[in-house]
Amino acid sequence: MGIRVISTQPFSDQKPGTSGLRKKVPVFQQPHYLENFVQSIFDSIAAPKGAAMVLGGDGRYYNRAAIQIILKMAAANGFGKVIVGRGGILSTPAASCVIRKYQTFGGIILSASHNPGGPDGDFGIKYNSSNGGPATEAVTEAIFARSKIINEYRIFDAGDVVIDKVGVSTLGDMQVQVFDPVGDYAELMESLFDFAAIRNLLSSGFAIRFDAMHAVNGPYAKGILERRLGAPAGSVMNAAPLEDFGGGHPDPNLTYAHDLVEIMYGGNAPDFGAASDGDGDRNMILGRKFFVTPSDSLAVIAANATLAPGYHKGLAGIARSMPTSAAADRVAQALGIPCFETPTGWKFFGNLMDAGKVTLCGEESFGTGSNHVREKDGLWAVLFWLNILAVRKQSVESILREHWAEYGRNFYSRYDYEGLPTEAAHGVMQHLKNSFATLAGAQFGKYTVKFCDDFSYTDPVDGSVSKGQGIRIIFTDGSRIVFRLSGTGTEGATLRVYLEAFEADVAHHHLDAQAALAELIRIALQVSELKQRTGREQPTVIT
Ligand code: G16
After folding, report:
1. How many domains does the structure of the chain reveal?
2. How far is CA 222 from CA 74, 243, 256, 407, in A?
3. Distances from the Cα of 337 to the Cαs of 295, 308, 314, 360, 417, in angstroms?
4. What's the mean pLDDT in 24-37?
């Protein structure tokens, strides 16, 4: 037994996307593929000898095998300690929590998030820095650069480590500490929210249903909602994490969380419904027969933040990704606090939170979170809503209606065209860029184009510039159409079309979002030539 240095050849496709490296499982199973990427991480982050790191994943197929490889590589690369979630399980927000709490050098999270799992499904790996957040672009670029020239990796030659029992073992000079993945996270939640008030709400007949989608949040939701807060057994459904998520697509939206949607829109529906994704960082919030868009959820949480003990002093600021609706901006304006607009990707919020400029962050892609960790946090959002509901004693729908009456309603929808031929999708984006000059000032029915651009962001903290972050067509009344290529897919290209229209008049707030946005959708299809260029008549998912 000892350290082995293995010769390898670089792979050309190890560029991290919106959130780490995501590929099909068989790609990761190629000899040296995972090892090359892990060594590229270790070479790029240059952790001091004896450093500690956190390791865990969402339990999907290949999670356990990857954990063993990474443990052995960490031991061979001079780490002193790796903290591993029992069974290799660790939700993304819990990983962030633990990195921060135990002040480790960083952590490796194994997940392809909301993408399906299984032997032919997706797998992913990403590095989070010592602030608990996803590595910045500078770090992911360095990892990619290293992956292109790597010629060897180091691995400790030993049998597998027992990861199913809490305790400490050793691998060479390195300690492996297996811990309960739920405990620290649950404690953090209890410090932020009024658990007593939520307990009262749940014992008063207020019924909830949480769909863990057979993914990582099952044990967290059972532990917190049922055991600590007293929700009746069965309130958490699909609670056992499965390697293939039960054959499902663990993406909490109206299409893929259909078990929950049927319950919430059926007879005798519970008062509150929620779901989270593969690695537990996304969330969907539902009332009885009522869907809360992620953009509205961020705005409502912001407007009611002081109802939760952890936020009773108020917010420093809010940040949202560019395609997210401006509903939160209106709340920020009313509160007299700044609102930042960043590119898509949670990594862009880290600097703002570290600098104390923002407390809450959110994305239209079902992500909401705060500076309690440096990842979006699905269960945190659910608990925030329950805290608000416990204090306000109103239905989800009436909270939204009052919110719109006060701030106006930002009608919002996203159309996803998944698995498009890559060239055709890029062709749509190029065509739009070529049309900027003719689009400016153009009139489409009641809409006049104010300007269009390819969104570019200058980080106010470190001055770094991120270009090419999505095409915006902004109309004179503030309505918007945004086109963006997803950075998380693993098959072909996914083109997202984001639509937003502001409506101040309360008499129109009851409208269905699709009806309110119908004209913008027509304009989007017309100017992009999406159908002609991709041959795709309908979106795969509408949220
Ligand atoms: C990741 C990022 C999010 C981002 C989302 C969507 O989420 O962490 O910040 O909004 O991807 O990305 P895209 O539109 O490029 O597919 P997750 O939940 O997949 O880690």
Report:
1. 3
2. 32, 19, 21, 36
3. 18, 18, 10, 11, 36
4. 97
Residue 281 Cβ < 6 Å to ligand 1? yes
Predicted confidence (pLDDT) at residue 179 exceeds the cutoff of 90: yes
Same domain? For 252 and 368 the reply is: yes
Which residues carry out catalysis? 113
Residue type, position 522, single letter = R
Q: Whose CA is nearest to atom 7 of ligand 1?
A: 19
Least confident of 257-266, 325-334, 503-512: 503-512
| Ligand 1 atom at minimum distance from 486 CA | 15
The answer on pLDDT for 540 being more than 70 is: yes
Choosing from 385, 407, 429, the residue where a domain stops is 407
Q: Looking at residue 22, which CATH number applies to its domain? A: 3.40.120.10
Residue with tokens 């979006």: 376
| Average pLDDT, rounded, for the chain | 96
What letter represents residue 147's amino acid?
S
Please check whether residues 82 and 7 belong to one and the same domain.
yes
Does one domain contain both 426 and 493?
Answer: yes
In the reported structure, the alpha carbon of residue 507 is separated from the centroid of ligand 1 by a whole-number distance in angstroms of: 35
Ligand 1: which atom is nearest the Cα of residue 134?
8
Kindly state if the Cβ of 344 falls inside 6 Å of ligand 1. Answer: yes
Give 368's strand partners.
Answer: 362
Does 114 sit in the ligand 1 pocket, CB within 6 Å? yes
Say if pTM beats, i.e. exceeds, 0.85: yes
**Domain residue limits at 276:** 185-407
Question: Which ligand 1 atom is nearest residue 111's CA?
Answer: 20
Burial profile 470-509: b = 16 or more Cβ within 10 angstroms, e = fewer: bbbbbbeeebbbbbbbbbbbbeebbbbbbbbbbbeeeeeb
How far, CA to CA in Å, does 52 sit from each of 59, 77, 81, 83, 379?
Answer: 22, 12, 5, 7, 27
- Give the pair of three-digit tokens for residue 236: 């958490």
Ligand 1 centroid to residue 19 C-alpha, Å: 6
Out of 392, 407, 422, a domain closes at: 407
Shared-domain flag, residues 389 and 416: no
Q: What is the pLDDT of residue 529?
A: 95
Asked if residue 497 and residue 402 are part of one domain, the reply reads no
What is the Cα–Cα distance from 426 to 424, expressed in whole angstroms?
5
